[in-house]
Amino acid sequence: MAHTEYVYDLADGDGTMKTLLGGKGAGVAEMHRLGVPVPDAFTVTTHACVETMNRKGEWPETLWSEVEEALTRLEERTGLGLGDPEKPLLLSVRSGAVQSMPGMMDTILNLGVSDETVAGLAAGGDERFAWDSYRRFIQMYGEVVEGIEPHVYEDALTAIKNEKGVENDTDLTTEDLKELVARFKKLSNEALGGEWTSDPKEQLKRAINAVFQSWLNPRAEVYRRANNISAALGTAVNVMQMVFGNRGETSATGVLFTRNPSTGVDELYGEFLVNAQGEDVVAGIRTPRPLEEMEEVLPDAYRELLDNMKKMEQHYKDMQDMEFTIENGKLYLLQTRNGKRTAAAALKVANDLVDEGVITKEEALARIEPAQLDQLLHPGIDPNHGQQSIAKGLPASPGAALGKLCFSADDADVRGDNEPVILVRFETTPDDIHGVIKAQGVLTAHGGMTSHAAVVARGMGKPCVAGAHGIKINPEAKTVTIGDKEYGEDDTLTLDGSTGEVYAGELPLVPPQINDDFQHIVQWADEVRRLGVRANADNRTDAMKARELGAQGIGLCRTEHMFMAEDRLPAVREMILAENDQERAAALEKILPMQQQDFEGIFDAMSGLPVTVRLLDPPLHEFLPNLVEQSLKVQELELTGGAAEDIEREKHLLGQVKKLHEQNPMLGTRGCRLGMLYPEIPEMQTRAIIRAALAVRKAKGETVDVEIMIPLVAYAEELKRQRAVVVETADEEIANSGEEINYTVGTMIELPRAAVTADQIAEHADFFSFGTNDLTQTGIGISRDDAEQGFLGQYVIDEVMPRNPFESVDRDGVGELVRIGVDKGRSVKNGLKTGVCGEHGGDPESIDLFNEIGLDYVSCSPYRVPIARFAAAQAVL
Ligand code: ADP
Ligand code: MG
Ligand code: MG
Q1: What Gene Ontology molecular function terms does this protein carry (predicted)?
Q2: In this structure, which residue's CA is closest to atom 26 in ligand 1?
Q3: CB-CB contact of 270 with 258 (8 Å)
């Protein structure tokens, strides 16, 4: 063991040390341990990066001397020396975060080549290769470490190719490359005002520092935010001996997945390039070749690669994404990681690995990323569309995407907020990440199946058609020419990422198809999980969808939407504006049959399962016109000499609007407070519910378990009185019907006072349902609508809060209120039924907490039901 505080030699690490060595560092250490050929290396830990960030960019005192010691050891092991003219050691300096962030940070290759060492590098016989490496180094180091504009080098490269009359970089001769190196050095020096350093040790120090800094670059930040990765983790830096895929025709470099990451099919999926280095394969400048073709070109290395590929897959028991380089016929693996894949592929791979006996069902379940399943629940292109495609590229990431065209990531970033857009690029680079996130899909003219764009798109479930060669993009004019037709920013295209076809206009879509792999695995999830999963649904269509997706009942049926419907509103207003009890009763009489009809639809769809109906919750003014608008209306009538009776009516309405106006309606007359003021409302609703349940049983022979829920209770006394209204009404209805039907009455716990007095409240409740949306608002003291527009986003970016508490429940605060509520409730009522019906019911992290707290079920929107089923299973694994 030779490691020091911040630096680990290759042999000091293993696959379990991701947090310290980063995914890449741990990955190469593990390969080395297992006898897979990897270049020798040492790793500067994530800890060193974090310390450096904490010290505002200054390295920990011992870091540089530790690096120097590790370098000396590496030199001894390889028999080479950094800067040694005879036997130069060349290094790659690679970024490596704990969670993989493909292409988001920087890597510097060929460090150690200089005027002094270039001859020594060529001593192996190949001068051209040495100078090619040299010009690559200056370009990469200049851009990444010294911050020189890429176009400085690109322009010089283009110029020399034009002068020599060649098209490809590979056509440049040794002499051309020498000339290019001279020009590159001069340009670099000019750009830096004479500060360019050629001391390799100094370069190494700066390169490591540049990798630290790249952790904070904008695209890495965007990626982290999109994937909920904490900025506090830092990146490791892998300093690795270079191996050269650009040493001629028996050298190559490439990328592969051990299975198809789009579909999950167990087949070879990779690309390579002969006589190439680094990003050549993924950058889209030269078109890479399918990996199968390597069998002919480099048969021995090919076989060895396939052996190692299967070995690593077996070892990690998961599909791998690997990078390799072949130098003079000798194979090296440079990286392995669990491959990013689509949801469909994730399910297929998991299913197959269980069939192959590689993993258990439980392990398979633990692998699935529940949030990713969302992808499977998006619509696809109607197979009967009958249209001709206008272009075809590689099916780089499956799914249907349609939208207006954007020709830069910045445009997509902005326009994507307002309308569906497709990002159209010659090729995409990691810098486009913010645009990819906002786009529905990505179309590129260049680049292969393993390009960064394709990898990132697959990971995010964005459809991507890559390398559609026939299309000509003009980013300045913001047009793309396909065939003989030009398409601009206002045109819509449809992409089929599963076939690579591109269509003009909007194609018809069909609802998502849930496949066999999904059905299979979700069954395992159901066998394992303890938490029930219900859906929030307030109409028949949603209820049916929820049931189809596996919901075991409805956890929240909101009744206000039934009040909002256009045909109901007049009667609802009549009720609100009623001058006395009789008038109010008359209006409610009109609403009752409509409510009953709604409930019948829902109960019919859910018969045999429990349905929790929440009595009216929102403040009454929501059913009335807005104060300002109504004032204006009255004013206008008066000014234009409207009929006296119209003025009178509108004025009356205005008076009511004023009367009901509240400064803070969220904390105003709503929830059970309404029912306390107007008991006729819960009475009417109870009648509608009980009548509907009876009617459905009459028609179907079975009905739902009726659960009537009183919202926004703060005091036990509120629940006691509201419960009495409900029970009296329900029992009367039941007695009148001459039938028997069971129902229960419970409450929402959505105020901190309710949570901490849950023992008192439980005396009157048959069940609790935690309304974590309101509980988050009232518990943290933030209004969702205002906060999400305002400070909340910044708080999340600055990591004041780990995540948006409306997306993922605030574990320590709101989560604790839920725990207190459950414990106190159950302290007086053993086994009191408890659930959650806020948005959090569909969030995997929150589900994990709810499982831990011991709730009986979560309830979420119908399309999140499958996600919740998986998350609930993972919570117990
Ligand atoms: P990323 O995280 O962006 O994939 P990497 O650190 O993997 O960055 O480096 C990018 C590419 O550089 C690799 O795919 C590989 O082709 C090349 N590379 C990195 N290290 C070496 C090395 N030691 N020898 C040869 N090529 C290397
Ligand atoms: Mg890599
Ligand atoms: Mg609420």
Answers
A1: pyruvate, phosphate dikinase activity
A2: 278
A3: no
Q: How many CA atoms lie within 13 A of 559 on its CB side?
A: 28
Alpha-helix residue ranges (DSSP H) falling in 607-679: 627-639, 644-660, 672-677
In angstroms, the Cα distances linking 366 to 312, 460, 524, 807, 870 are 20, 19, 11, 22, 9
> Across-strand partners of 270?
256
Q: What are phi and psi of 842, to 5 degrees?
A: -110, 10
Tokens 């445009």, residue? 411
What whole-number distance in Å separates Cα of residue 305 and Cα of residue 31?
13
Q: Reduce the DSSP state of residue 836 to 3 states and report it.
A: strand
Maximum Cα interatomic distance, the chain, rounded to a whole number of Å = 104
Q: 549, 485, 481: which is closest to 519 by C-alpha? A: 549
Three-state DSSP at 835 gives: strand
Question: Which position has the token pair 């970033």?
Answer: 413
In 10 A of CB 581, how many CB atoms? 10
Q: What pLDDT was estimated at residue 447? A: 78
Angle at 134 between CA 131 and CA 136, to 5 degrees: 110
Closest Cα to atom 16 of ligand 1: 278
Q: One-letter amino acid identity for 824? A: K
Cβ atoms of 692 and 600 within 8 Å: the answer is yes
Give residues (CB < 6 A) around ligand 1: 39, 92, 94-95, 102-103, 107, 109, 240-243, 253, 278-279, 323, 325, 334-335
Which residue's CA is minimally distant from atom 27 of ligand 1?
278
pLDDT in tens, 279-331: 888 766 677 899 999 999 999 999 999 999 999 999 999 999 999 999 999 99
Query: CA 206 to CA 192: how far, in whole Å?
Result: 15
Q: Do the beta carbons of residue 556 and residue 837 sit within 8 Å?
A: yes
| Atom number of ligand 1 nearest to Cα 278 | 16
Q: How far away, in angstroms, is 107 Cα from ligand 1 center?
A: 7
* Rounded CA separation 267/258 (Å): 7
Full set of structural domains in the chain with CATH: 47-241 (3.30.1490.20), 252-338 (3.30.470.20), 379-510 (3.50.30.10), 529-619+662-876 (3.20.20.60)
CA distance 471 to 9: 48
The pLDDT tens digits for 207-261 are: 999 999 999 998 898 889 888 888 899 999 999 999 999 998 999 999 999 999 9
**Mean of pLDDT over the chain:** 92
329: left (phi over 0), alpha (psi -120 to 50) or beta: left
Q: How far apart are CA 811 and CA 527, in angstroms?
A: 27
For residue 637, which amino acid is it? L
- Comparing C-alpha atoms, which of 321, 344, 337 is closest to residue 262? 344
Rounded Cα distance, 196 and 185, in Å: 8
What is the per-residue pLDDT across 136-152, written as a single tens digit (0 to 9) for each?
999 999 999 999 998 99
Quote the ipTM score.
0.95
